[in-house]
Amino acid sequence: MKLSGGHIHALVGRNGFGKSSLMRVVFGTQSAEFSFTRYNGEHLQHPFKVKGLIRYLPQFDFIPRSIRLRSFAESYDVPWEKVITCFPSFEGMERMSVGSMSGGQIRMLATVVIICSPVKFVLLDEPFTHIMPLHIDMIKDLIRAEAAGGKGFMITDHMYDHVLDLADRYYYMEWGVTREMSREELLEKDYFLRLR
Amino acid sequence: MARIRGLLLFYRSFFLIPGLILTVCGCYLYYRNAKYDFGVGPSVLGLKFIVFALAAYSAYRSKQLYFYYNLRLSYIQLIITSFILDFLLFFAYFKIASYFY
Q1: CB-based contact (8 Å) between A182 and chain B?
Q2: Which residue of A63, A92, A165, B58 shows the fewest CB atoms closer than 10 Å?
Q3: A117-131 pLDDT, tens per residue?
């Protein structure tokens, strides 16, 4: 698998085929029997330890409950004003703790902050899950804007209408094996039966 | 700075409460018994290691680890920092308690 800056890569496949595991291997927090990560010709054992290289949005809630919203954004080097610009509903909530927000709001905050992080690559594991449709469009616009600025994205989600709408490179994962495909080849897979 | 705050937040999230409870109990036992015999010392220290190991295992299983991974902090860095802070706090409280008997 090859990730390039300025591109949005879709990783699709059925449940249990290893998409999230592959993301964790790329991120450097999970070991694999055979794995090799290279960035600009340099082998990386743990890519997540390299400053300004990569951030990962897991599919579960991962923010400590006691942290304030503004502190969370700023600890990831995202100015609070940028969060407000992307998502005006958070205005006036900067001093609230994450624990006092709803699950959907926490997910939205985590997604926006990870997408806006000043890093070269962002891995998004199910970024559209638990998000209401209006906000999904905002997230898609945000991803497009950040990708236009040179950031590389890898997205996996079962809401493949949105994923395929966003992506410009496609990977299909089956039984732990990843293959790059064209959009047309991908739509031939039975996973996408509804879209044919 | 964000990474230092992350280390402190990790310590506060998983180790501060069990560490403080055990330290206060240990200091109380020390205060009550040290004048005569400090036989409880090794037991308290042993319990402290067990509680730390349990808290470390709980942290290892926690989904919040990805918050720290995104700050470029590995699990080993988090645990070593917490170990140093936790045992510094523990021995500092014991030193303070020793002035009162």
Answers
A1: no
A2: A92
A3: 999 999 999 988 888
